[in-house]
């Protein structure tokens, strides 16, 4: 289905050409979605911008354009407003035919990409022997949603977990564990991640204080990098330990991702530095090998270097990302690479992108995008912490969401004197709890910080997961109540008469625009807003327009509107990583 706004744009260009000459077919007709429904559905202010050039009054220009506009099938008669805006309103008959088309389409009017790309989404990416924190949770939820939208558009998506599983810190950790807890390095499953994190912190203190220990740690790194079996085995056990914990979170959230950690690029790091050297980009600075950057300066206004090899010969986060970008371009043949991390890493990405471009690792045909996001704050407006001031464990945070959802559900059941099975209660609380966490995150403009509040995210009213799930369940209850099988409605004729019906229809047909917008701009909150509006418009329609009690053909037509709403909600929510409930 072609986007309506595109059809309108093309018609405008034709009309401009006929009215003012061939060259005007190239002018952008400035068609936008109307800012306010009282101006109709679409608007163009091109007459105003042409007035000077054509030396004519803009209302006169508007009339000339309208005289040549061939939008009779789509729009009511265009109106000229104010100084010469052209306002367009879609015709109900056009909406009816579009809705029939969408209804008959299993993809609900969203076409597959004409040129599917190979896209990498690098997300989640926690660090071994460290706790997965709320920042990683955001990356996981946002990255998963972006990957799903791209997959739905038929791109070939590689979901990569760039786990922090390599680096000098492992030498330090192994050296320390050899002293205090050697079993961890030889036997699987002896400690949990929490203890490992504590030991890691102790190791770090020791490392910073004790020169002799520092040297031992350094030797361990050398052994590990040389691939000594004993060291590799120890390192693998440590990774395994963390991986198991991470997997618990992925299972709970139903996240599919392929691990390709930093260690994967180990054997490519030296080559990155050699290539930078060959290109003449490498400079020594305080003993470290660096590439100086354009447009980045330090506090004193001096040019800033990106370090790619430390003075001790070790490589770092940036070197690994440079090696990874080469691999992703050359071996994975990625055409678009998307990195989802906290906004605090924006400079890191801008810097190594710049170096990768300069070094020719990144051809112009490959698009790289950093998708940054803000912080998760506690209700006190400060960085999210537990009551005792520690970092929040993700597993506990998610379990708590499910627990609170269960409490809400039990209260509601008691109020309504409903009894439900234990299975029902478990399933509903789990879906509502976890969806609420996901939705609360995705519905924010990702750049902003957001306040984590169970109470707010679980609210049945407002832009929340429960509100959306409820709208979906409401439609399903219509089918149960009326004994209607939505799938058997077939190609029913759609008739739109009531205002709320037309408003709902106008919203239903926008799904495709929204998905394309998210595909391009990577803001999941746009999809959330769309679904929230859809639920509201559906509720307004349902309050005003009887469905089961109306006469044919209105009844079937309205049932189709209900079903389409539910199918779009289900699809949209699934792209957000949220499953729907038939009853709740
Ligand atoms: N492990 C990093 C962190 O915890 C995130 C990695 C993001 N991906 C990348 N290619 N740099 O902050």
Descriptive overview:
- The chain is α/β, with parallel strands linked by helices.
- It folds into four domains: 4-90, 2-Layer Sandwich (Gyrase A, domain 2); 118-162 and 262-374, HUPs (Rossmann fold, 3-Layer(aba) Sandwich), CATH 3.40.50; 168-255, no CATH class; 394-575, Orthogonal Bundle (Isoleucyl-tRNA Synthetase, Domain 1).
- Helix content is 53%, strand content 11%.
- It has 21 helices and 14 strands.
- The protein has helices at residues 4-20, 46-54, 58-68, 92-103, 134-152, 169-180, 183-186, 193-209, 211-225, 229-253, 269-278, 317-330, 346-358, 394-415, 422-442, 454-457, 465-482, 499-508, 511-521, 524-544, 554-575, and strands at residues 31-33, 42-44, 79-81, 85-88, 118-122, 156-161, 258-259, 282-285, 288-297, 303-309, 336-342, 367-373, 376-377, 450-451.
- The strands form four sheets. Strands 7-6-5-11-12 form a five-stranded parallel β-sheet, sandwiched between helices. A four-stranded antiparallel β-sheet has the order 1-2-4-3.
- Helix 5 links the parallel strand 5 and strand 6 (156-161).
- The longest helix has 25 residues, at 229-253.
- The mean pLDDT is 94.
- The protein binds arginine.
- Residues 122, 125-127, 162, 164, 321, 324, 339, 341 line the site of arginine.
């Amino acid at each position: 289905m072609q986007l309506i706004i595109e059809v309108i744009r093309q018609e405008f260009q034709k009309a401009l050409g006929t009215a003012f000459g061939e060259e005007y077919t190239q002018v952008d007709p400035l068609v936008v979605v109307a800012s306010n429904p009282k101006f109709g559905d679409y608007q163009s202010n091109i007459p105003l911008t042409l007035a000077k050039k054509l030396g004519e009054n803009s209302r006169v220009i508007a009339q000339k354009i309208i005289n040549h506009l061939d939008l009779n099938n789509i729009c009511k008669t265009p109106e000229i407003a104010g100084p010469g805006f052209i306002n367009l309103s879609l015709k109900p008959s056009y909406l009816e035919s579009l809705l029939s088309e969408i209804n008959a389409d299993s993809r609900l009017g969203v076409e597959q990409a004409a040129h599917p790309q190979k896209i990498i989404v690098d997300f989640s990416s926690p660090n071994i022997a460290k706790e997965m924190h709320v920042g990683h949770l955001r990356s996981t939820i946002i990255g998963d949603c972006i990957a799903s939208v791209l997959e739905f558009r038929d791109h070939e998506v590689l979901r990569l977990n760039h786990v922090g599983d390599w680096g000098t810190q492992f030498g330090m950790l192994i050296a320390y564990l050899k002293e205090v807890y050697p079993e961890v390095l030889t036997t699987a499953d002896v400690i949990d991640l929490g203890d490992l994190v504590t030991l890691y912190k102790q190791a770090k203190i020791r490392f910073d204080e004790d020169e002799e220990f520092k040297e031992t740690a350094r030797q361990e790194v050398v052994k590990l990098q040389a691939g000594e079996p004993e060291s590799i085995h120890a390192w693998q056990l440590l990774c395994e330990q963390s991986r198991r914990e991470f997997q618990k979170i992925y299972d709970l959230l139903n996240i599919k991702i392929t691990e390709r950690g930093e260690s994967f690029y180990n054997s490519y790091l030296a080559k990155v530095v050699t290539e930078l050297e060959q290109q003449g980009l490498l400079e020594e600075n305080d003993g470290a090998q660096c590439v100086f950057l354009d447009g980045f300066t330090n506090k004193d206004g001096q040019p800033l270097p990106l370090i790619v090899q430390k003075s001790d010969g070790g490589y770092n986060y940036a070197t690994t990302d440079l090696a990874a970008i080469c691999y992703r371009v050359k071996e994975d043949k990625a055409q678009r690479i998307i990195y989802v991390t906290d906004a605090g890493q924006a400079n890191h990405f801008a810097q190594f992108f710049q170096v990768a471009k300069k070094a020719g690792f990144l051809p112009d045909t490959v698009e790289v995008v950093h998708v940054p996001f803000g912080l998760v704050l506690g209700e006190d407006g400060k960085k999210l912490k537990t009551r005792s001031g520690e970092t929040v464990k993700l597993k506990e945070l998610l379990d708590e969401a499910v627990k609170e959802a269960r409490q809400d559900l039990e209260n509601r059941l008691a109020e309504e004197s409903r009894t439900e099975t234990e299975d029902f209660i478990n399933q509903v609380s789990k879906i509502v709890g976890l969806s609420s966490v996901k939705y609360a995150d995705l519905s924010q403009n990702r750049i902003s910080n957001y306040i984590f509040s169970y109470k707010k995210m679980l609210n049945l009213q407002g832009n929340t997961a429960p509100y959306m799930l409820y709208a979906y369940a409401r439609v399903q209850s219509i089918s149960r109540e009326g004994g209607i099988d939505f799938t058997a409605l077939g190609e029913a004729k759609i008739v739109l008469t009531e205002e709320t019906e037309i408003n709902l229809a106008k919203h239903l047909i926008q799904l495709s625009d929204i998905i394309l917008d998210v595909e391009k701009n990577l803001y999941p909150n746009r999809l959330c807003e769309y679904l929230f509006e859809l639920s509201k418009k559906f509720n307004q329609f349902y309050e005003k327009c009887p469905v089961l009690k109306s006469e044919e053909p209105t009844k079937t037509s309205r049932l189709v509107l209900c079903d389409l709403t539910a199918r779009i909600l289900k699809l949209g929510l699934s792209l957000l990583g949220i499953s729907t409930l038939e009853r709740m």
